[in-house]
Design a protein that fits this description.
The protein has helices at about 30-40, 355-365, and strands spanning about 20-25, 50, 55-60, 65-70, 70-75, 95, 100-105, 110-115, 125-140, 140-150, 160-170, 180-185, 195-205, 210-215, 225-230, 240-245, 250, 270-275, 275-285, 295-300, 325-335, 345-350, 375-380. It has about 375 residues and is mainly β. It is globular. Residues about 1-10 have low confidence and may be disordered.
């Protein structure tokens, strides 16, 4: 008898995997209102008043650390504003930083803003945007690991910066002081910025691994998704990272989702594990890519990914003073706030305008435009189309 061993691809799967998509959703006014009240509070003049890039991680003592990318600090003034619009507003001189962090108390109420920016610019003039975070153990003590995207000023069309590197920062507990930053993946030597991949938009723990997802930075609305992994507890160890190359884990990476047109992700997206199924949330492709949220599902973080599912349109600011131009992007799941079959998803809101100065002015006239909003959703079997 001859026994033939066949080398199978190193794809992780789960026998409990089943197709999943958004079955229902509702606006989460409680969470949206909590950040609006915190940002509008006129008793504080040195704290967070708005930002995007919303990520969260629950701390061992029950608090939640919220991480933001570009952020406004300072005072917010009650309406009416100088332009006559009925919204709280900030002055054009309001402090603007590349990252910030807000801590909630155990009840979930935003309590204080850490000194900002929490993650300093590099000596090369690059800035850092925080993305996914995890609590890990280091030398017998718990710490917070925060994945960072390092970007630098670039020419059009890279108005939001050229992607340069993925890093991991370490924060002490319980005081949340920055202890150090380690570079994980340098992309500066990749000549074409559109081919540079930054990791950390979302992370999922499963089977002893932390799977870290990323995307390329092409200028199309639809990007390609990638995935790396490290053993749980070793995000800060560069030597532990491995990248999926289409067949196995190694030092090279290949996309797991995206054709550059109809199927793919935004540069920022989120993945959760529901039973044995991985569910990915992203903005929809095409003309509605900054108003609608869609999803994909897979039995493994490496794919194959099925979808996109039917999209939904989360609420956007819309009144007589804000008739159009608001956009939704960066849908992020918040497992620390989810439970009982309910999943909390945030999305960022910004103002679209070809002229950056006009957009910035609009965000100052109406501070509600540049803050996270939340929905609560339930997953179910995808509807047939």
């Amino acid at each position: 008898m001859v026994v033939v061993f066949v080398a199978l691809p190193e794809r992780e799967g789960d026998g409990r995997c089943a197709p999943r998509a958004v079955a229902s959703w509702t606006a989460d006014e409680r969470l949206t209102g909590a950040f609006a009240r915190y940002g509008d509070d006129t008793t504080r003049t040195d704290d967070w008043t708005g930002g995007d890039g919303t990520h969260s991680v629950r701390l061992p003592d029950g608090r939640v650390l919220w991480l933001f990318s570009d952020s406004y600090l300072g005072a917010v003034h009650p309406p009416p504003n100088p332009a006559g619009q009925p919204h709280p507003w900030r002055t054009a001189e309001a402090p603007f930083v590349r990252n910030s962090a807000v801590v909630t108390d155990r009840s979930g109420r935003p309590e204080r803003t850490l000194a900002a920016p929490l993650f300093p610019d590099t000596a090369a003039g690059e800035w850092r945007w925080p993305v996914a975070a995890r609590v890990e153990e280091s030398d017998g003590r718990k710490v917070v690991r925060v994945l960072l995207w390092t970007r630098a000023k670039g020419a059009d069309p890279y108005v939001f910066g050229v992607p340069n590197a993925t890093e991991v920062a370490t924060l002490s507990l319980p005081d949340l002081r920055l202890q150090g930053i380690t570079q994980v993946l340098d992309q500066r030597q990749v000549p074409d910025p559109a081919r540079r991949v930054l990791y950390g938009t979302t992370a999922v723990d499963a089977g002893g691994w932390t799977y870290v997802f990323g995307a390329d930075d092409g200028q199309r609305a639809t990007h390609r998704a990638y995935v790396a992994r490290a053993p749980v507890g070793r995000l800060g160890d560069v030597r532990a990272w491995r990248y999926w190359d289409g067949e196995r884990w190694g030092s090279r990476a290949a996309p797991v989702l995206g054709d550059g047109e109809r199927r793919g992700v935004g540069t920022a997206f989120s993945v959760v594990k529901d039973g044995g199924t991985y569910v990915l949330f992203t903005t929809a492709a095409g003309a509605k890519g900054l108003t609608e949220v869609t999803s994909y599902w897979s039995c493994a973080p490496t794919g194959p990914w099925h979808g996109p599912a039917k999209a939904f349109t989360p609420p956007l600011p819309h009144d007589a003073a804000t008739p159009s131009g608001a956009a939704a992007y960066n849908p992020q799941a918040h497992p620390a706030l989810s439970g009982g079959g309910r999943l909390v998803l945030s999305y960022d809101v910004n103002w679209l305008d070809a002229a950056p100065a006009t957009a910035q002015a609009q965000l100052s006239r109406n501070v509600s435009l540049y803050r996270p909003r939340f929905v609560s959703l339930r997953l179910g079997t995808p509807a047939t189309r």
